[in-house]
Design a protein that fits this description.
The chain is built from 7 helices and 3 strands; from the N terminus they run H-E-H-H-E-E-H-H-H-H. The protein is mainly alpha-helical. A 3-stranded antiparallel sheet has the order 1-3-2. Helix 6 runs antiparallel to helix 7. The longest helix is centred in the last third of the chain and has 34 residues. It is elongated. The termini are far apart.
């Protein structure tokens, strides 16, 4: 997937400025696709030049004008074509998993350092899971009252929650195994 596709989806959900789009990436889209603010602005500029999005200047009292972007017909066509293409399963490259396998060739001090790294990694995933659950409570308080777009957003978030839960369970297993090696 290209950043362009994530931007098109977001703008179809709700037109907005580059700043607003970057905030959406920070808040929700970033659950499955990350981008820096600079990347978003650079891609928006290219998409506007290619005719995929249009921008409207909006006056703001006491602040610089802002540009609000929306999807143009060519952008919608590009997205429709992409949505209908098959998706290949992602190949996983997991540096931590390789380090865990490599622990068999390290000494006790190396395994202790690995345990600390796994614990740090686990804490990061625990924080992410908490952020997802907080977002779910905030954004989807009544799942029975969601429209089609919201239901699809919610199912993506539930996938992120399930993924984080799976990673945490695996990391707990890794820690149990590493701690058991010292016995």
């Amino acid at each position: 997937m290209a950043l362009e596709h994530a931007i098109l989806v977001s703008l179809l959900e709700q037109p907005g400025s580059g700043y607003e789009l970057a905030r959406r990436f920070d808040r929700s889209i970033g659950r499955f696709w990350t981008a820096t603010h600079q990347q978003i602005y650079r891609v928006l500029k290219r998409m506007e030049a290619d005719g995929w999005v249009t921008a409207e200047e909006i006056d703001q009292d006491g602040r610089p004008d802002k540009r609000s972007y929306s999807v143009a017909t060519p952008g919608r066509s590009v997205l429709t074509t992409w949505l209908r293409e098959p998706v290949q399963p992602e190949s996983v490259r997991h540096e931590l998993a390789v380090k865990i396998r490599g622990a068999a060739f390290d000494d006790a001090a190396g395994r202790a350092a690995l345990i600390a790294e796994v614990e740090r990694y686990r804490a990061d995933h625990e924080t992410t899971l908490h952020r997802y659950r907080t977002g779910e409570q905030r954004d989807f308080p009544d799942p029975g009252a969601l429209d089609t777009g919201q239901r699809l957003q919610h199912v993506v978030l539930r996938g992120g929650i399930a993924y984080e839960q799976m990673v945490l369970a695996w990391l707990d297993d890794v820690l149990d195994t590493l701690h058991g090696l010292g016995r």
